Amino acid sequence: MSVNELDSTIGSTLVTRVTDNTDVPIRSLYSNQPAVLIFLRRFGCQLCRSYALKLSNELHPILKQNNINFIGIGLERFGLEEFQKENYFSGDLYIDEGKKAYQTLGLPYLGWFKGITDLFLRSTKAWNDETKKMGVQGNLKGDGFQLGATYVVGPNDGKVWLAHPQKDYGDHPSVDEIIKALRDNIPDFHE
């Protein structure tokens, strides 16, 4: 996917807002202000939980200060209740029923063989170590082989300022990478 095509690619795709079960087009999540969109693998995934918690603690306060939406999009409801109860994510949560946006964006689906072998990659092991230090646990419920992504998008047309589709379970952009994308595109951005 070209870094300029988010709005034309998935802008009209409907996602369900968790707070009230209302379907809204993804475009509405960034139409009036910039947004950081996190396409989560699974709400029960301990690596996803720890990444969401890290972003919530380190990035979300900066986003609030700069009036930037912080959005988490999951592909199913498995683990959602526990994810919310344990406050892993401080932004707004949505569900992409049927993985329409995931599929349209071409986010990788690993399958059994690659899904198992990716557990032994250096990036996965490193993020798992970080997760253990944070004391975050997870479960194995739901689709464990779908990878996610992080997008930083501008308002109105959804121009993508940062696109980071996951290559494996432990592949996430750093908080600094996300901040750099925002700083490079918002003249009055404050850290």
From TrEMBL:
This enzyme's EC code(s):
1.11.1.20
Please name the Pfam families in this protein's record.
AhpC-TSA_2
Gene Ontology CC: one annotated term: cytosol
Q: Tell me the keywords, alphabetical order.
A: Cytoplasm, Fatty acid metabolism, Lipid biosynthesis, Lipid metabolism, NADP, Oxidoreductase
BP term (GO), one: fatty acid metabolic process
* InterPro entries on file: PXL2A/B/C, Thioredoxin-like_sf
User: Which catalysed reactions does the entry list for this protein?
Assistant: prostamide F2alpha + [thioredoxin]-disulfide = prostamide H2 + [thioredoxin]-dithiol; prostaglandin H2 + [thioredoxin]-dithiol = prostaglandin F2alpha + [thioredoxin]-disulfide
Q: Where in the cell is it found?
A: Cytoplasm, Cytosol
From the UniProt record, which GO molecular function terms apply? oxidoreductase activity
Q: What's the main place this protein lives?
A: cytoplasm
| SUPFAM superfamilies linked | Thioredoxin-like
Matching entries from CDD domains are given as: PRX_like2
- Keyword DNA-binding assigned to the entry: answer is no
Q: Which PANTHER family match?
A: PEROXIREDOXIN-LIKE 2C, PTHR28630
Biological role: Catalyzes the reduction of prostaglandin-ethanolamide H(2) (prostamide H(2)) to prostamide F(2alpha) with NADPH as proton donor. Also able to reduce prostaglandin H(2) to prostaglandin F(2alpha).
Per the record, the similarity remark reads: Belongs to the peroxiredoxin-like PRXL2 family. Prostamide/prostaglandin F synthase subfamily.
Q: What is this protein called?
A: Prostamide/prostaglandin F synthase
Species, as recorded: Adineta steineri
- Please spell out the taxonomic lineage of the organism that makes this protein: Eukaryota, Metazoa, Spiralia, Gnathifera, Rotifera
